[in-house]
Design goal:
With about 210 residues, the protein is mainly beta. Helix content is about 0%, strand content about 45%.
Length: about 210
């Protein structure tokens, strides 16, 4: 609940009123691990915090060293993804890159882009939603380039898997994509923010 600077938990049933579980946070993205811990990005403190069940303060797990482009810094972090070994992947918006922070690490590593803002295959322009598969492949919403890129683990450049055909409302176009998710059948869902829609792509047939 960004404008109210809080995270609210709503019951699945009879969800008429929510409970504030984290206050005074400039939250943008969040995710939960298998233990029920919440990971929340704060785009003012430029950090990601982990909140275990019942915690109100949390622990910094990425960033927290002011705004900047060093490996121990973030600048306007947006979305966050956590894998099974509790490594944190964060879209580092104003640095136009995706960072990975191993559990307990004091600094991260760049796993996508990091070559400045641009539309080349080694670049992003305001990174947003991020998902990582079991092979370590990074999928990222490249907002201002209107595309979704895939970066295999260790790759020095990405490949466009959706969009990249300019801003527009055709089925092969996006306008400011911000979020993405896969279902268990391999379908990709994209929050196509500027078009006020969610698009579904069958990655097996690339539709």
């Amino acid at each position: 609940d960004t404008s109210n600077r809080r995270v609210v938990r709503w019951p699945r049933r009879n969800g008429t009123s929510g409970e504030t579980i984290i206050s005074n946070i400039d939250c943008v993205g969040l995710t939960m691990d298998e233990n029920g811990s919440l990971y929340v990005t704060d785009d003012v403190k430029n950090e990601v915090r982990r909140y275990r069940r019942g915690e109100s303060q949390g622990t910094v797990v990425a960033g927290g060293n002011g705004s900047g482009n060093r490996l121990d810094q973030l600048s306007y972090p947006q979305y966050v993804f956590v894998n099974r070994d509790h490594s944190v992947y964060v879209s580092d918006g104003n640095n136009h890159r995706v960072m990975k922070w191993m559990e307990g690490a004091k600094q991260g590593i760049v796993v996508a882009a990091g070559q400045g803002q641009g539309n080349g295959l080694t670049q992003l322009s305001y990174s947003q939603g991020v998902v990582v598969d079991q092979l370590g492949t990074v999928y990222v919403a490249d907002k201002w380039n209107n595309r979704i890129l895939r970066w295999p683990k260790g790759a020095t450049q990405g490949s466009v898997i959706v969009g990249g055909n300019g801003s527009g409302e055709q089925s092969n176009q996006l306008h400011w994509p911000i979020g993405l998710s896969f279902d268990r059948h391999g379908n990709l869902y994209v929050v196509d923010n500027g078009n006020h829609r969610v698009q579904k792509f069958d990655m097996r047939s690339n539709i």
